[in-house]
From TrEMBL, chain A:
Keywords for the protein's UniProt record, in alphabetical order: Coiled coil, Nucleus
Keyword Cytoplasm assigned: no
Positions of transmembrane segments: none
UniProt protein name: THO complex subunit 7 homolog
Subcellular localization: Nucleus
Taxon lineage: Eukaryota, Metazoa, Chordata, Craniata, Vertebrata
Keyword Nucleus: yes
Family annotation (InterPro entries): P-loop_NTPase (IPR027417), THOC7/Mft1 (IPR008501)
Automatic annotation (TrEMBL), chain B:
Lineage of the species this protein comes from: Eukaryota, Metazoa, Chordata, Craniata, Vertebrata
Stored Gene3D superfamilies: YVTN repeat-like/Quinoprotein amine dehydrogenase
UniProt keyword annotation of Lipid metabolism present: no
The keyword Zinc belongs to this UniProt entry's keyword annotation: no
Protein name in UniProt: THO complex 6
Amino acid sequence: MGAVTDDEVIRKRLLIDGDGAGDDRRINVLLKSFTKWCNSTGSPEEGFTQYQRMLGTLAQCEFSMGKTLLVYDMNLREMENYEKIYTDIEQNITSAHDKISECKKEIQRAKRIRKNRQEYDALAKVIQQHPDRHETLKQLEALDKELQQLSHIKENVEDKLELRKKQFHVLLSTIQELQQTLESKSGDCGDQVM
Amino acid sequence: LQRKLRSIWSISLLILLSRYKDRHLHMSVFSQSFSPCGRFLAAGNNYGEIAVFSLSSALSPDATDLSQTPILTFTAHEGPVFSLFSTDSHLLSAGNGEISAWSWAELIKRNTKAAWTRRPNYKSSLEIPEINAMTVNPTENSLVIGGGDNNIHIMDLESGVFKSVLQGHTDYIHCLSVREREGEILSGGEDGAVRIWDHRTGQSVHCIEVYKYEECARPQYGKWISCLTTESDWMLCGGGPSLSLWHLRSMSPTSIFPLSGCQRQANFYQDMILSVGEGQCVSHCLLGGEVKAQIPCTPHSLNTLALNLNSTDNRVRVLTVGGSSHQIDVFTNLSYRTFSLSF
């Protein structure tokens, strides 16, 4: 990786050579013109114009230096910004992962609940088919009452039957006795008549 | 009767067809089982072969066509492999009236030597009844086998001894289920009865004749019960009669599912019921009786449905279905078929 970036750096430097060469050239030209100006034997106007020209080049150099410093600051701040965004995104990713696993658990829970509800519904359907418990109890009670009434009536009828039987028995036995007494009496009477 | 005829037919054509290149056309997958780690799937077909697929490589991001073919195929039995079951370490397969056990660790290393092969004590030695269903009763560590001799045989897994025979069905048994908590074994058979047995006494505690209930019966299809599954107090059963949900405490049917065709396997999954059978789809139903969705798949008629719940790795939590095709459909998302494994 280090070797690659070095190559990249060298390649970039060579590419931007125009700019870099411009600045370097400017400084070299400035130095040369300064030494020439120091050793110049020309007229004072020429010397002054040289001096002005040199100040101009110096200002240009300072200007480009200022520009590169600002660019450097900007790059540093951009880097920080990107770092921040990077960490933000990482946090979002982990929280999204967590949310996904939570949701998966929720789904499992919901499926279990749905299954239980469906089982409940299925059983409820079957239970609904059977008649209501209260109604059946009421029907049972009504049937009980009927049974009791009927057995009551049966008892009454049986009692009456017993009573009639006894009464008839008494009647029949009295008739028989009367017959017997009549027969014996008539025998006596017959004897008496004879 | 249909199953018996089918098995005789397939055994007799086995030799002929398995030699031809288009054996794939006549192949049917009857059973499936996932390995205890959840990374492999074993499937049994009508030629008596078992194929082991590596799910982790078929589902990995860089899967190729080759990873959708078995890592190992071998002939396990002379007859069709109607039932496969995995314990913690072994794969049990049933075919031609016998049960073989294969160590999963050995199968993954492509070693096809059976750990053991046992046969229940059949009364008649003339005709060997096929074994249609197998399940394990974990509390007793016993293997429950239902077969063509109308009886349920119980074998102790540690000693290999056949402990008892449950008699009561009047025709062969299609499917079995175990209710661990209550210690009951349920069996459904060709005679249309779902019998509930107490595994300790070996007596039939209840007998539900599903076809006698008007709302379930479909006399045009018959009375046999080909699929049976239980979960706590609920039971799903179907076959000739419609697939129905029963509440076992009250022994009453609570919901009937309007699925055309006979269902061959059904499972409870979360808040849904998944069911396969005649029909080129996997049906998703709600407990209330409505059919929520029917997902199309490759085989025209499905025999087996398996859910891989063994592994914690979410990648291999799949649903696989197999039927009258050499392809086994894999669903990573229940709503659509993802791809197919090829036998």
